[in-house]
Amino acid sequence: MSTRIATVFGGIGQQGSAVVHAILKDGTFTPRAVTRDVNSDSARALVKLGAEVVAANLGDKEAVKKAVTGAEAIFLVTIPFDPSLPEIAQGTNVIDASKGAGVRFVVFSTLPDVSELSKGKYTNAVQSDEKAKVQRYLEASGLADASIATGGFFENVLKPFLGHSWEKTDNGYILPTIMRPNAPTVQTWIGHDMGPAVLALFKQCDSRASEILGQTFVLGSARMTYEDFAAELSQGLGQPIQLKFAGRVGFHAADDMLDAMTEFTFYPGVSIPDPRLEKLGVKTGTVEEFGRTLLKSYLAEL
Length: 302
Ligand SMILES: NC(=O)c1ccc[n+]([C@@H]2O[C@H](COP(=O)([O-])OP(=O)(O)OC[C@H]3O[C@@H](n4cnc5c(N)ncnc54)[C@H](OP(=O)(O)O)[C@@H]3O)[C@@H](O)[C@H]2O)c1
Prior knowledge:
Blueprint: E1 5-8, H1 14-26, E2 30-35, H2 41-49, E3 52-55, H3 61-68, E4 71-76, H4 87-101, E5 105-110, H5 114-117, H6 126-139, E6 145-150, E7 152-153, E8 167-168, E9 173-177, E10 185-188, H7 190-204, H8 209-212, E11 216-219, E12 222-224, H9 226-237, E13 241-245, H10 252-263, H11 275-279, H12 287-300
Parallel strand pairs: 1-2, 1-4, 2-3, 4-5, 5-6, 6-11, 7-10, 9-13
Antiparallel strand pairs: 8-9, 10-12
Helix pairs in contact: 1-7, 3-4, 4-6, 9-12
The structure holds NADP nicotinamide-adenine-dinucleotide phosphate.
């Protein structure tokens, strides 16, 4: 087992576990997955695979300090909508502790500042604006850093999202969605691509520092409308998929985010897949492959 430790916050969650699994498969580092419950089945399963698993709440500075001590690299995911623990506090706790512990490199999972991008029109997308604040704090911290911006997760279709889930029809499926029609947005396959992307940055942050440090990479397979996303999913699935657009859902953070995504281009000027990640060896998966594999299995069990 490698003595080089990489601490992964949210290590049991979608993004973090993708990173933990990629690190385990590669072997350069030993992953240290952070969770609030080290006794969960998922935590125990990671230990069996060779990961360290440690307990820390992102609001607990002492526990966060222990989680980063001895680590060379950090992957940080912050979690929105907890009024008692804003994302900026989660982020500053990890960044301050990392600096104090002499961590060499931090990768942050980010989103754009929607208030700024929309010039003050959409100010409720706190899940995005707060991440942008954390990113700015990280960039000003003096730590070696990079950020990975994500699009909408492919995996959102594998669970009810704000109460919306699949309906079976006579010859296919209906996918109710809160996404907006005719809005080209970045689509990201977290389980396939977040692990290799973070690992590529961890492994090359010294040898290719000028290409990595201080950069905001955009992780995605394509920038596409949800209509095109559903069409490609349908190709993989081998069955028709009809979209049912829900329109505004009354949850202001989601509505503002989706309205802003419709009206403004996120990450303008970056083609998707991001060529900078491709140069570092990251090859993103396709929507068709996701439809043919994970979506097909998921729908078979509904
Ligand atoms: N869904 C999308 O399309 C989309 C798109 C862009 C960005 N995002 C962002 O993705 C993030 C969610 O990532 P995900 O899907 O990987 O999340 P997830 O699967 O829900 O996992 C969240 C992880 O965070 C941990 N966590 C939650 N609160 C914590 C706390 N107070 N202290 C320590 N750990 C805590 C949980 O750990 P435990 O093991 O302790 O429970 C869990 O492992 C959000 O910030 C969201 O804004 C989502």
